[in-house]
Amino acid sequence: MIKRFSVLYVGQLELDNVGLDGTPADERRYSNDRIVQAYDNSVALAKHMDSLGYYCMWTAEHHFQREGYECLPNLILLGVHLAGLTQRLKFGSAFNVVPMWHPLRLAEDFAMADILTGGRLVFGVGRGYHSREVETFGAPVIDNDANKELFEEQMEIIFKAFNEDSFSHQGKHYTIPAKVPYRGYDLEDITLVPRPINLPVEMWQPIASGRTLEYIARKGIKGMVALTGELLVEQLFRSYQEYAALAGRDLALGQDMGLGFGFCIDESQEAAIEKVRPYHDERYKWFAPFGFVRYTDSQGRPWGTPGAPSRVPTIEEGVAQNVWLCGPPSLVIDRLRDVEQKYAGLEDIILQWPEGMPWPEFKEQLTLFAEEVMPAFGG
Fold first, then answer.
1. Running DSSP on this structure, what letter comes out for residue 175?
2. Preceding peptide of 287 cis, ω within 30°
3. Where are the chain's structural domains?
4. Beta strands, E only, 117-247
5. What proportions of the chain, in percent to the nearest 5, are helix, strand and coil?
6. How far apart are CA 172 and CA 120, in angstroms?
């Protein structure tokens, strides 16, 4: 049963000249004075969500994006700040890009935030996909196998740090603690100081290709599927459930998963589609070259894979594939009811702030959704 509604804000600015025929993504260049608008947006969004009863504000870690699409490099720092300006809203990392961190620094930072905010931060992890940022920080991402190997060793350290009073680790990439003398004895273990006080730590990870499904299901990490065609959503949800069962976790279909949608509310579906069209197209101008068009063909093959389309999709295709919820509140409720009936264990819906949509317009959309759609669901 759907219980919670959250919002994903990746840190975009109010972009100029948006749309398929607007400014090419790689030609965008914003000054630092404009980049800081992402932080004004974050504060305004958090306060508005808190007042309307939303559950969690999710943000995305990215670096060096002078193009203005994803301008939030430290989600834990941001979450602690926003928690001090709000009352109930949670703040989720979607996601901390683990290969760009030392795993102990990431674990320490989250543990401090967990204590300082009274448990209002949600821990999210990812492997990264921007070569410009991950490789610049000295970690692999172009070599997928090397990235996976590094990530899984880092996660092993993070699990130990969160859950064990003291621990050690010897792997390919890390030796913890360092093999050095300390105050007259040889170090054999260390303790994370502080450790989180809200245990076990709730963890989330994005699901795109599905290659991480077995790992996260086995580790008890929750999965987030966002802006994905409904045929692929069903494949991913069923695979997660099956892998969880192999790990001894008996889950209802959709349990421990979050499902993300784009949306636009208006008097008719046609009016909503036209309103959101330039922002939808702006999103895929930026994300399509990364392979992040998670629409599918009739056989369920993701766009960009052999045999499937590779062009920028249209908003009409997004609506047809139940990726974007567009129309009057009653239609949006009906679409979500269908999802709820299909996935009995699904509790979390995440709404996307469309890239380039000005804050006043999105603020109105969030208000309409909270007042006209959310009351139809429990939780």
1. E
2. no
3. 1-56+237-379
4. 121-126, 169-170, 175-176, 181-182, 185-186, 203-206, 222-226
5. 40, 15, 40
6. 34
Residues 6+ apart with CB under 8 A from 1: 340, 344, 346, 347, 377, 378, 379
> In 3D, which of 367, 349, 362 has the Cα closest to residue 55?
349
Residue with tokens 């996601």: 95
Contact predicate 313/278, CB 8 Å: no
Confidence of residue 91 (pLDDT cuts 50, 70, 90): very high
Q: How far is it between the farthest Cα atoms of the chain?
A: 75
Q: Taking the model in full, what pTM does it have?
A: 0.96
DSSP state at residue 183: T
What tokens were used for 269?
């579906």
Written as one string, the DSSP assignment of 215-255 is: HHHHHT-EEEEESB-HHHHHHHHHHHHHHHHHTT----TTT
CA angle, residues 339, 340, 343, in degrees to nearest 5: 80
Could you tell me the two tokens for 179?
A: 């093999």
**pLDDT tens digits for 320-343?**
999 999 999 999 999 999 999 999
Nearest Cα to 228, choosing from 257, 264, 255?
257
Contact residues for 269 (Cβ-Cβ < 8 A; gap 6+): 319, 326, 327, 328, 331
